[in-house]
Each structure stands twice: as C-alpha cells, then as structure tokens.
Amino acid sequence: MDMSILKLLPGTRKNVSLAPHTTFKIGGPAKYFFIAKSTQDVVDALKVVKSCKIPFFVLAGGSNVLIADKGFDGLVIKIQNTKYQILNTKVHAEAGVSMETLVRETGKKGLTGLEWAGGLPGSTGGAVRGNAGAFGGEIKDTIAQVFVLNTKGSVRTLSKKQCRFSYRDSVFKEKSWIVLSATFALKKGDITKIQSIAKEHVAYRKDRHPLEYPNAGSMFKNCSLTQFSKKLQEQMAHIVKVDPFPVVPTAYLISEAGLKGLRVGRAEVSRKHPNYVVNLGGAEEKDVLRLIEKVKKEIKKKFSVTLEQEVQYVS
Fold first, then answer.
1. How far apart are CA 137 and CA 116, in angstroms?
2. Does 98 qualify as catalytic in the annotation?
3. Per annotation, catalytic residue among 170, 218, 268, 270
4. pLDDT-derived band of residue 131, with 50, 70 and 90 as boundaries?
5. What is the tens place of the pLDDT at every residue in 220-257?
C-alpha cells in the first residue's frame, strides 16, 4: 500500500506530525501527507485515495480543527492552492488563499463585502465550507459561485442557492465535498472606510481574543435566542446580538456559569474570551475533549441548552 500511494501521488510523505499544521498545535501524525499546490493536485489526490481505498482529510489553514493525538490513519491533503484574481467587482480565489489576503487585497481596491472578516483566521476554502461569519457578516453574503470536487471525483460549479448555506454550515459539510475555489461578487465602496472597518475588526480580535495562546477559534456556535425559555430571553435581552439572526453569545453563557479559567491538564477555558479553549503548552486531545464535555454539561444544567461544537474533531 505504501509504495502504491507514494508512486501514484509523487510528493506524498509518511508519518508527518499534524500539530504544526494546526492553530491549536495539537495532534499526532498523518500516515500519509500531501501538499496540494494546485486544483489539479487536489483532484489527483482524491483519485488516489479512491483507488487505494483509504480515508482522507482535507486540511487548509488549520483553524477550527482538533486532531487526535494518535493522528490520522490515512491521507491528509494540505491545501495550498493560492491563486486569486480581482476583476472589476468580482474576486475569484482558490481554496488555499488566506482570508487575511482576501480582506487586504479587496480593501486596497475599494471593494466592499469582506471587511467584516478582518482578522479572521484560516483559508477561503475553510471559510466557505463553514460559512464563516463575524460582526454580522457571513461568507454567503457575497458568494456568487463555488467550484467543488464531489465524492465521485467530478468538479462541479454550484450557485449560492445550491451551496445551502446556513449558520456555520453548508452542503460541503453535509456531503463531504472539497471546496476548490470560489467567486465573490463585491461592490465598489470607499477605500478609507473599508480598510478602517477591517483594521478595527483586527484590533478587536487582538484585544478580546486569546491570540497569545494556540487555539482553534470559537469552540462552540452561538445559541439561537429561540432555544431559551421566555424568562431567560427577557433576562438576556441586553446581550443578544444579530449573527446574522438573534443569538446569545456562548462566551456569555460560559462566563455566567463561572467556567472561565476551568482547566483539564494543559487545556483551559480562556479567561479573556470563554468561548475559546486555549493550549497552555503541551495540551493533549484528551484534555480538550474532557474540557468540552465539562462545559457542555454545566451549560446544559444552568441554561437547559445544548452547545454545538464549531471546531471539527478529527481522529
């Protein structure tokens, strides 16, 4: 099997530690590891895993993911296709383009529509897959088309409607399709204002988020206001935000439950932003999983709501 994969997919390496490839800095080795520097590389890699009948996982910017300490017994496809083109108000970006690059370069052109993503970690592909959002904006707001590789190995072009975007979700998650690239439809705006908003969001993240420690981003989705009893809805009216519908920030719930600073091993509920679990150095997958369960249990007990994980667990 080893020789088959290594021959069929030149450039594939064996037993590569995944921790350095994630923002959490947690995770064991990938049995096979391949860097896809072009869309064709991604297509070729999928053909190989299908013919060799081995599991695969697509890793891009490395945020929003927790990898098991035992690693991944298959092929990890590291997405590094990073071409993009800005033509008038349309932007076409391959999946490996960082969101930081998209926000910066569209801002320079005076194009509005992505400034909400200032400071957002990760790649275009990951952001599209998870319908990333912040500050009232979401990826779906500006998507025109998404080019995807389905499980049969065929490249398809999907309209926004076909993407079935919902809160931090999409058809790509549902069907395990690989995002290859996306086209965004932006609008012309004021360069100074656009860049100012993006910079404000970057500054906000630096000030409010625990970026001094490795983390995977927000651990849980925010909770829809409708999940709570009428009494709790009234009590929490002052902290409800639109994201993009009325939600109660999970960070507020965790704080109110007195869980800031809760630790298991070297994993800790951030004191700075309690919807983050941080790696204090040397945290293991089991520490994070136990901490997640403790938080879920306490929030269920106090507020009668079930937290939904935003971070993907890969084992």
1. 6
2. no
3. 218
4. very high
5. 999 999 999 999 999 999 999 887 789 999 999 999 99
Please identify which of the residues 168, 270, 284, 285 carries the catalytic annotation. 168
168 is catalytic: yes
Amino acid, single-letter form, for residue 20: P
Is-catalytic flag, 181?
A: no
In 3D space, the residue among 134, 168, 136, 164 whose CA is nearest the CA of residue 148 turns out to be 164
First-to-last alpha carbon distance for the chain, in angstroms, is 21
Q: pLDDT tens digits for 170-215?
A: 999 999 999 999 999 999 999 999 999 999 999 999 999 999 999 9
* Nearest one of 76, 71, 81 to 9, comparing CA atoms: 76
| Residue at token pair 């600073």 | 261
